[in-house]
Amino acid sequence: MGEHRRVGKSAEAGLPADGPQEEAQSAGDGAPGDGTTRGTTPSAGTGPAASQAESLPSGPGTPYSLSDYRWYFNRDLSVLEFNRRVLALADDPQVPLLERLRFLTIVSSNLDEFFEVRVAGLMQRRKYGAGPLGPDALSPDEEMAAVSSAAHEIIAAQYACLNERLIPTLAQEGIRLLRRREWQAAQRKWISEYFHQEVFPLLTPLSLDPAHPFPKVQNKALNFAIVIEGRDAYGRHSPIAIVQAPRLLPRIIQLPRELAGSSDFVFLSSVIHENIEALFPGLQIRGFYQFRVTRNSELFVDEEEVDNLLDALADELTTRPFGEAVRLEVASNCPRDVHLHLLRHFGLQEESLYTLSGPVNLSRMAAIIDMVGRPDLLYPPLSPGIPDRCLRSEEIFTQLRRAPVLLHHPYQSFTPVVDFIRQAASDPQVLGIKQTLYRTTPDSPIVQALMDAAVAGKQVTAVVELKARFDEANNIRLAEELESVGVQVVYGVVKHKVHAKMALVLRREDDGIRMYGHLGTGNYHPRNARIYTDLSLLTADPAITADMNALFMHITGMGQAPRLQRLLQSPFTLFSGLRERIAAESALGRKGRIIVRVNALTDPDLIRDLYDASQAGVQIDLIVRASCALRPGIPGVSDNIRVISVVGRFLEHSRVYYFGNSGSPEVWISSADWMGRNLFRRLETAVPLRDPDLAKRVYQESLALYLEDRCNAWEMQADGSYRSLRTTAATGQPCQSAQDLLLALYCRGASGA
């Protein structure tokens, strides 16, 4: 990789005043680490990257075409690479022990959604041959083979982490997951009583015969295949039966302290296994095997053919648990004839079979974290700071008329955003509130404030995105609750998700109606605001709020796309606006500078533009948390591009775009990733930070600190793999991450802009 000028560490360096020259003074500052990965999780040179690791042409004069498939990494394989990085946290001894367990369960949840959505779509493309190839040119068969190989490898590493490192380390802390062979007589007696009182009445054993066909197995439900021998009182014989574990039963059961240690647990599967004879009296049990099926969970509603989107989605939700099977998980002790029987029943090939050395749903183990009550094994409690301005007794509208407020979550509290809506709801001068709601909860204080405002007679409009994946049921209930008190609810735009995060308050003042707005990179979800990194802008800028009002009018009504003064908006101006700015930096050559921070970068046109800019000499840094289809560091193509991913305590969710702009930098915050869906099939916004102090602050906190992270940062290689940039001080002290620095800056009650 060619020489790469880096942003200096000094907080005083601030926003570069003259493009790359200032950065060139710190070239080589903060050298990368030795590439050692944490724990035993595979990283560089292994995993899904290997399936695409063809020899990449390089060297002076090498012919290339930016449409060449070799310059693009597969999106789904990149998602799996992200989960390797999350799994590395579960294997990291510097992470608190119960947080390591949490990261292990997060990998399971992530992979569940990956199969429900991405693999399900891939299998449909393979089955029906629909859709063109992606820029990486992998056929559905090739991609499925690569995805299956990588997923099997990750899941094997996940269970190795659980069995070889986490379970023994938890036991050292007195947190034991007891296997059946470890149960003492008194424990076995209590478990038997628990089974007969709490579990047995809810179970329904189903032998398989013409009168008892294979039951409908719900998505991700825990099931048991029981191999039995003998005939019952009716003379019936069935070699196999199915037992389904009701979802309302806990999967992890804590034993009474008087019978065990303070934190001893058993699995529900073990409890049922121990007592399985009670379900088949007089018969011989020859085998007991856990299994779980993952199903296609995408919903299909033709929005142009339905009269009411809410009713249509509500009907479609009832079928989600029984979509087409895409993955079968079985316990590792399951014999081949049994898993082949299950594969045939669910219409799956062996590539979709995953044999597991442990419970078939690790995500349920997250319950242990709250049950043990061990704060010493968790991250220290988070106490977000609140800017001094937001602690003053004067109303927030007076403050915003003087200057905007920028909040950096979770380091700074989400409370000022909630207070913004609450004050609007109770202020007699406020006439109306307009807000988008993509993901939130019905008990959210923001939702309650909107309902209070409607009850108080204000004009309240809520754009509730019913199609927010896996939040559809919550959003249907939310829409109904809002409508019940008089909120005007709309469900977005046909064939487009409203993903923008906007709240607009209209207030009558001495000089007429004035508008105040909130724009953010994250959802109006108070819990997520404590675990996601996001940015919030509260402003009274007339140009910005006029743009917001125009967008709300466009969402709820009809007409041509509004002409906006400040904001960029997808699907109309965001894509072209980004391309224009990349082209402008390309024209500057080596004086150009681009820094982009997003969750995902997969749009092929923007990737080609970045390749063009790299070849023109523009220095480009990309901070991409998860999926990245761009290949950095290819000589002659992307040797001026560096890609890092930061994975730590908080989920990196902020979207920030920086363009050097000939020494007058532009800094934007946005709701949009650089993906086709965000740019063309969603309504998104990007807002420029025209206040120089706010722009400088976002540059320092969201870009510069992350580019210097040598703790939680991973650098992407040209083959799509990642290497850790972790370094450890000579003293042996833990490294310090960007997240740690921001916690120290804001979570001691320190004030901010």
Walk me through what this model shows.
The chain is of the alpha/beta class and 753 residues long. It contains 20 helices and 27 strands. The strands form four sheets. Strands 14, 18, 19, 20, 21, 23, 24, 25, 26 and 27 form a ten-stranded mixed sheet that branches. Strands 10, 11, 12, 13, 15, 16, 17 and 22 form an eight-stranded mixed sheet that branches. A six-stranded mixed sheet has the order 2-4-3-7-8-9, sandwiched between helices. β15 (501-509) and β16 (512-520) form a beta hairpin. The longest helix has 33 residues, at 140-172. The relative contact order is 0.12. Residues 1-51, 58-63 and 749-753 have low confidence and may be disordered.
> What percent of residues are in strands?
15-25%
Number of helices: 20
**Low-pLDDT segments, ≥5 res:** 1-51, 58-63, 749-753
Largest sheet: 10 strands, mixed
**Mean model confidence by pLDDT:** 86
Labels describing this entry:
single chain, disordered N terminus, alpha/beta, 34% helix, 10-stranded mixed β-sheet, 753 residues, disordered C terminus, 20 helices
Topology:
Blueprint: H1 20-24, H2 75-90, H3 97-128, H4 140-172, E1 175-177, H5 185-199, E2 206-207, E3 223-229, E4 240-244, E5 252-254, E6 263-267, H6 268-274, E7 284-295, H7 309-317, E8 325-331, H8 336-346, E9 353-356, H9 367-372, H10 388-391, H11 396-402, E10 405-409, H12 415-426, E11 430-437, H13 445-455, E12 459-464, H14 472-484, E13 488-490, E14 497-498, E15 501-509, E16 512-520, E17 532-539, H15 542-556, E18 568-570, H16 574-588, E19 593-601, H17 604-615, E20 619-628, E21 641-646, E22 651-652, E23 655-659, E24 666-670, H18 676-680, E25 682-688, H19 692-707, E26 713-716, E27 722-724, H20 738-746
Parallel strand pairs: 1-6, 8-9, 11-12, 12-13, 14-25, 17-22, 19-20, 20-21
Antiparallel strand pairs: 2-4, 3-4, 3-7, 5-6, 7-8, 10-17, 11-15, 15-16, 16-17, 18-25, 19-23, 21-26, 23-24, 24-25, 26-27
